[in-house]
Design goal:
Layout lengths: L1 E5 L2 H8 L3 E8 L2 E8 L2 E7 L4 H15 L3 E10 L9 E9 L22 E2 L2 H14 L3 E8 L7 H11 L1 E5 L2 H10 L4 E9 L5 H34 L1
Parallel strand pairs: 1-4, 1-5, 5-10, 6-8, 8-9
Antiparallel strand pairs: 2-3, 3-4, 5-9, 6-7, 6-10
Helix pairs in contact: 1-6, 2-5, 3-6
């Protein structure tokens, strides 16, 4: 079973459109669509905006469906000079840039209960995702993706996140999805298509380019589903 989470309809509708034998279940106001995508058992959900909604969705998906891997797909703002609108950021690790207990002597982003700042993604899932992006011929970068309950548009905030965490992109859900998966020992990977430059023009860029960018991430996620399923079938 492959779990797919996006925060908005535009980030997952292309996946649900491919689903056969679809069954829908609503839990905590979140609709989980389970079925076959390219022959692979898949469950897909729209978690909504922000870290709390993303955590609720992820924990519910794990407890209800026990997926072998969870992929968070969607859009993000670029923090890298190498990533522009439509390009792909693949997570090496995830960080929550708005977690701050530095007054107590800890690093920015430090999660006390896990004793970590950076949450590492599953190496196998990352490897397959890279192969899928390369097959698609889309420019990409692997690195830290930063999450927080803020839409980042100010240049100063962008610079601070990049400086503090060496992050290549920022968004609002992946860090909490990563934390929930990590706590449940569920493999995960985050892929984000760049929808804006996370600068003074970010809100304008996002409105124009979010749907287009999301399609890139959807197409790559669809390829991941096929490849992950094929590799798992060979090992069985």
């Amino acid at each position: 079973m492959i779990g797919i989470i996006g925060s908005m309809k535009i980030e997952i509708d292309g996946i649900i459109d491919r689903m056969e034998e679809k069954e829908e279940t609503v839990i905590s106001g979140i609709t989980f669509a389970k079925g076959l995508v390219s022959g692979a058992e898949t469950v897909v959900a729209i978690c909504g905006t922000g870290k709390v909604s993303a955590s609720v969705c992820t924990q519910t998906m794990i407890m209800k469906y026990a997926p072998d891997v969870i992929i968070n797909t969607g859009v993000a703002g670029s923090l890298s000079e190498n990533l522009h609108i439509g390009d792909i950021a693949i997570s090496e690790s995830m960080v929550q840039h708005d977690v701050d207990i530095s007054e107590l002597g800890y690093e920015l982003g430090y999660l006390c209960e896990l004793e970590l700042v950076y949450l590492p993604v599953d190496p196998k899932a990352k490897k397959i995702m890279v192969e899928c992006v390369e097959k698609a011929g889309v420019n990409y970068e692997i690195g830290v993706i930063a999450s927080g309950d803020q839409f980042i548009s100010a240049q100063a905030k962008k610079d601070a996140i990049k400086s503090n965490f060496n992050a290549i992109a920022c968004e609002m859900e992946g860090g909490s999805i990563a934390q929930t998966c990590y706590m449940n020992q569920t493999p995960f990977c985050i892929i984000r298509a760049i929808s804006d430059e996370a600068n003074g023009e970010a809100s304008i860029d996002y409105t124009i380019f979010a749907s287009k960018a999301a399609k890139n991430a959807i197409n790559i996620t669809l390829e991941f589903i096929k490849k992950f399923n094929a590799e798992n079938s060979e090992q069985e």
